[in-house]
Design a protein that fits this description.
Largest sheet: 6 strands, parallel
Order of helices and strands: EHEHEHEHHHEHEHEEEEHEH
CATH class of the largest domain: Alpha Beta
Radius of gyration: 19 Å
CATH topology of the largest domain: Rossmann fold
Number of helices: 10
Oligomer: single chain
Distance between the termini: 44 Å
Structural class: alpha/beta
Length: 291
């Protein structure tokens, strides 16, 4: 069993970006600028956004954090997005999800200029991804592909089983894994909450991508020897023995599944850092394309 270490892979990407940004700076060219919008005070969302801002600082990007209380109206948020769309200094815009219930995620995401949609959720970017056209790929699926690429995992001809059909992870990663690329060229089975006997599909899988949001859903009896397991899930579970009052669990029972795997991601330290690294790459690309 070997670890797909997202921290190491993400650091390699950030180091590369840091050199490229320094080169832009030395040539007097524009530096990438990422604007992040946070609505409300969800603990996990606040942590994620802070990590994104920190990553920007490390690689030399400009960053702007706009934080609204959850009482803000959708109209005011949409007005702010349009303002950022028209700001030539801003290269990437992300609105941290989930939004409070009185917002329409679809309305808000599709208000972002597709050329600044570095989270890759706009309908135009999703359509381009489905057709295999150049686009901004959603950050978590992009991060998964970058992680497989970093560790030179040959996925061609493999059977990949994706657990979860969200527009953020499950659906896009199933499309990317089935694409005519490497990583990619997989035969993909997409399972979800209505799939009958998920365990039987998992036992056939060379690659499992678990993105259900159910702690330790994937158990050892569901994984065949030598499988590659990518755990996207991250759930806060109460733990009074810890200073924070919680611990993080993935969708995979890591302790018992890991010995059966050829490669596996840890939680935390697997997919999470790669999501942010992919977001940085998308923002850098946006800056270059516009300048």
């Amino acid at each position: 069993m070997q670890i797909l270490d997202g921290k190491k892979a993400a650091q390699a990407i950030r180091d590369e970006l840091k050199i490229e940004v320094a080169q832009l700076n030395a040539e007097g060219k524009k530096i990438p600028h990422l604007a992040a919008v946070l609505v409300g005070n969800n603990g996990a969302s606040t942590t994620y956004v802070a990590a994104k801002v920190k990553a920007c600082e490390e690689v030399g990007f400009k960053s702007t954090l706009i934080h609204y209380e959850d009482t803000i109206s959708e109209t005011k948020l949409l007005d702010k997005i349009r303002e950022m769309n028209n700001d030539p200094d801003i290269d990437g815009i992300l609105v941290q999800l989930p939004l409070p219930k009185h917002f329409s995620d679809e309305e808000v995401i599709n208000a972002i200029d597709p050329d600044k949609d570095v989270d890759g959720f706009h309908a135009i970017n999703v359509g381009n991804m489905v057709q295999g056209l150049p686009t901004y790929v959603p950050a978590t699926p992009h991060g998964i592909m970058l992680l497989l690429e970093h560790y030179k995992i040959d996925t061609q001809g493999k059977h990949a089983v994706v657990l979860g059909r969200s527009n953020i992870v499950g659906r896009p990663v199933s499309i990317l894994l089935s694409g005519n690329t490497n990583p990619g060229n997989c035969t993909v089975t997409l399972c979800h909450s209505r799939t009958q006997n998920i365990a039987s599909f998992c036992r056939q899988a060379d690659i499992i991508v678990a993105a259900l949001g159910k702690p330790e859903f994937v158990t050892a009896d569901m994984v065949k020897e030598g499988a590659i397991v990518i755990d996207v899930g991250i759930t806060r579970v109460e733990d009074s023995s810890r200073k924070s009052g919680f611990r993080l669990k993935g969708d995979v029972d890591f302790e018992n599944v890991a010995p059966r795997c050829s490669w596996i991601t840890p939680v935390p330290g697997g997919v999470g850092p790669m999501t942010i690294a992919a977001l940085m790459k998308n923002t850098f690309r946006s800056c270059l394309q516009k300048n």
